[in-house]
Amino acid sequence: MEHNKKDIAILFYDGPCKLCNFAVRICRRYDKNNRLLYYPLGSIESKKIPDIAKLLEKSDSVILWYQEKAYIYSDVLIRLSYILSGAARLMRLLKIFPRPLRDSAYRVIARNRYKWFDQQDYCTLDGNDNPGIAQFRFREDINDKYLS
């Protein structure tokens, strides 16, 4: 399916975070029209979009770039509910809560995600440790080699 450039969304996520990787796998499952691209925060791609580069200082979990606008905190989940299909659309129900309440809850989870969900040295987008599938490694030596 051909997409207009504005139909494509980019999800920048915290690569070493197990919760973020789980969220990426869920997005891939419900992205029936292949409208999402995925890049780790701090990737070369995140630095190419000035709005994202500025937000990297503010948000360290996920940032969504969609229709020339950046979304952070709970707005990412709500916006994704309009991009994804199936059960992921239930995230629209978050709109019944005021943004300050949603964002506060989001930030508590984001701040504690490593403690509650741990982290890893790499990300496999399919959720398996299959070396044939695209992987992003987060060790310093590999980051220096591929992201500099």
The number of helical segments is 6
Terminal CA distance reads 33 Å
Average pLDDT confidence is 75
Beta-strand content: 15-25%
- Tally of DSSP β-strands: 6
Strand order of the largest sheet: 2-1-3-4
Low-confidence runs: 126-148
Q: Percent of residues in helical segments? A: 40-55%
**Overall number of structural domains:** 1
Helices and strands: which structural class?
alpha+beta
Radius of gyration, in Å, reads 15 Å
- In N-to-C order, the SSE pattern is EHEHHEEHHEEH
**For the report, how would you describe the main beta sheet?**
4 strands, mixed
Task: Describe this structure as you would to a colleague.
The chain has 148 residues and is an alpha+beta fold. The protein has one domain. It contains six helices and six strands. It has helices at 18-30, 44-48, 50-55, 74-83, 99-117, 140-147; strands spanning 9-13, 36-40, 62-66, 69-72, 122-124, 135-137. Strands 2-1-3-4 form a four-stranded mixed β-sheet. Strands 5-6 form a two-stranded antiparallel sheet. A hairpin with a 2-residue loop joins strand 3 (62-66) and strand 4 (69-72). It is globular, with a radius of gyration of 15 Å. The termini are far apart. Mean pLDDT is 75; it is low at 126-148.
